[in-house]
Design goal:
The chain is an all-alpha fold. Helix content is 81%, strand content 0%. The chain contains three helices and no strands. Helix 2 packs antiparallel against helix 3.
């Protein structure tokens, strides 16, 4: 199975990277909702929100790079 993953084309690699970015976006939404509506402690609330916004920024950078890297040859 590992041999098949090593030989991925550029288009498939971009697809998996964009899936990871969407996962970061989903995680950030869940963490923001959790920090706003479920947590009562200020410090834990701030840390959770900080991690969530960091995930959202990281996902945005990944999607920006994937989109603006252009089309693939295949």
């Amino acid at each position: 199975m590992f041999e098949r993953m090593v030989n991925l084309s550029d288009a498939l690699m971009k697809m998996w990277i964009s899936f990871a970015a969407m996962g970061f976006m989903f995680l950030s939404v869940v963490l923001i909702l959790f920090s706003r509506y479920k947590l009562k402690q200020g410090f834990l609330k701030g840390i959770t929100a900080f991690i969530a916004y960091g995930c959202m920024i990281y996902a945005g950078i990944i999607i920006f790079l994937v989109v603006f890297s252009g089309p693939t040859a295949e």
